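re: ur question from yesterday

yeah so i grabbed the chain u mentioned. its 220 aa long if i counted rite. heres the sequnce exactly as i have it in my notes:
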Amino acid sequence: MPAPVEKVRPVAVRLDAGGAVLDGDLTIPAAARGLVVFAHGSGSSRHSRRNRAVADVLVHAELATLLLDLLTGEEEQADMITAELRFDIPLLASRVVAAIDWAQTQAPTSSLPIGLFGASTGAAAALIAAAGRPSAVRAVVSRGGRPDLAEDALDLVTAPVLLIVGGRDDVVVELNQGAYTRLRGIRELTIVPGATHLFEEPGALEEVARLAAGWFGAHF
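ran it thru and got these structure tokens back, copy pasting raw so excuse formatting
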């Protein structure tokens, strides 16, 4: 894992996504080599402990990160009751696309190559966004993701894709194996031995972060 560096503080940002105002935390280290936009999983937000742990490692590896709420405050309140929006993959993907477009217009990030890190259902949103913005997205990493939910967009992704799955997450392993065969570009499926869906086992999330940093670093 990269050696500790001086802590870089995130900056709160807001961006418009088709009329929906989304809140995010943008962290840009000195000499940033790229920007990684996070697409969180079902029922999560930019405050996800797991995504923040991965983002910290990426920042130490000189990669900027954008942790974003894909739902507005009102939508999150409704989703807590219905649990419907967290599985509205087209909606979530449109929000990731909006984040990509926003990053390309902002002075601090406009010159940085963009990568996407998706978890759970957010991985499907990230893959759809990568298919929709092929010239902008340089790499995608999925953690315990549901790439199968990207459906036909899987055939259109040209960015290099790393699928990371826990070895004890049997159903998701199978779904990722199926998605792997449909991806046409550079792709890799890595199974973390002994890890379950949330990578809560000792060292599992650290391995995810290490793999992600290496993948983005290689393809930016």
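noticed a couple things. The domain at 11-219 is CATH 3.40.50.1820 (Rossmann fold). also The first helix runs from residue 49 to 60.
anyway ttyl
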